[in-house]
Write a structure and sequence with these properties.
Helix content: 40-55%
CATH class: Alpha Beta
Strand content: 15-25%
CATH topology: TIM Barrel
Number of domains: 1
Distance between the termini: 47 Å
Bound molecules: guanosine-5'-monophosphate, manganese (II) ion, sodium ion
Organism: Duganella sacchari
Order of helices and strands: HEEEHHEHHEHEHEHHEHEEH
Protein name: PAS domain S-box-containing protein/diguanylate cyclase (GGDEF) domain-containing protein
Number of strands: 10
Structural class: alpha/beta
Largest sheet: 10 strands, mixed
């Protein structure tokens, strides 16, 4: 409860930050990014989102936090665009947030107020969204797709849902979970799983992002199997948008 109260206060005080982690192509060029929420404390430490997002979900605060995240995402898109670095950015959307009655209106409002192009915004959802009310979920995804937004399945391969949804949903991208990437290229079954996901995605015409790429050996394996987008500490940590812009300008 203390955490919940502190989170409400931090949000109201403007203490939460949205960082961005670059996604790169096979040549290491930044082609997009994922927005990740950060909660810095006065002593310089950070409360990890893995701790406060579940609390926000539990308490309903995710509704405000999620709306804030959408507005931050629009601002980040525009900030990169203004720096000559227009690229799509992904924002994580929790199931509770997605299921709010006015979620589509919220997205529309954030886009309209900011003037950010919907085409540069990707919504990352998890397989958890698919456990129930599949038809409602798909209908809502179509509404958002019609606005120009795209969908990515986060943590792909770790959920329990049937893969039938891949056929039914308007998807743009799959993100291969870090737990699979971690054990490549040494572990034979992880390698086989990653290769299978890449092949399946190619057949379905879906873009793939490999998450948590930390070593050159992992990158080499992914590139050899035609994965064309990587995200991980090997390339870039999550950082403030201004820091990413500075880094990209320095490198070009
Ligand atoms: O950045 P880090 O790996 O610690 O993030 C941990 C978890 O928090 C991830 O599962 C990520 O999806 C989630 N997360 C980070 N930022 C956001 C956000 O803005 N909204 C939601 N719903 N989840 C987020
Ligand atoms: O669950 P989701 O994919 O949204 O969250 C991504 C999380 O993974 C973020 O918390 C981010 O900080 C973290 N992350 C990103 N790249 C790496 C990496 O190379 N290694 C590890 N261990 N974590 C990473
Ligand atoms: Mn994510
Ligand atoms: Na993930």
């Amino acid at each position: 409860l203390t955490l919940e109260r502190d989170l409400v206060a931090a949000l109201a005080a403007g203490e939460l930050q949205m960082h961005v982690q670059a996604q790169v192509d096979r040549d290491g060029r930044a082609v997009g990014g994922e927005l990740l929420m950060r909660w810095p404390l006065a002593d310089g430490s950070m409360v990890p989102p893995g701790v406060f997002i579940p609390v926000a979900e539990e308490s309903g605060l995710i509704i405000h936090l999620g709306a804030w995240a959408l507005r931050q995402a629009c601002a980040a898109v525009l900030q990169l665009q203004a720096a000559g670095l227009a690229m799509p950015l992904s924002v994580n959307v929790s199931p509770t947030q997605f299921r709010q009655g006015d979620f589509v209106a919220q997205v529309q409002q954030a886009l309209a107020d900011s003037g950010a192009p919907a085409q540069l915004l990707v919504l990352e959802v998890t397989e958890g969204l698919l456990i129930d009310k599949m038809d409602d979920t798909i209908a809502r995804m179509h509404q958002l797709t019609a606005l120009g937004l795209r969908f990515s399945i986060d943590d792909f391969g770790t959920g329990y849902s049937s893969m039938a949804y891949l056929k039914k949903m308007p998807l743009y991208e799959l993100k291969i979970d870090r737990s699979f990437i971690m054990d490549t290229p040494d572990d034979a079954s992880s390698k086989a799983l990653v290769q299978s996901i890449l092949a399946m995605a190619a057949h379905l015409g879906l873009r793939v992002v490999a998450e948590g790429v930390e070593t050159q050996a992992q990158a080499d394996f992914l590139i050899a199997h035609d994965c064309n987008c990587m995200q991980g500490y090997l390339y870039a940590r999550p950082m403030p948008v201004a820091a990413l812009i500075e880094q990209l300008h320095r490198n070009t």
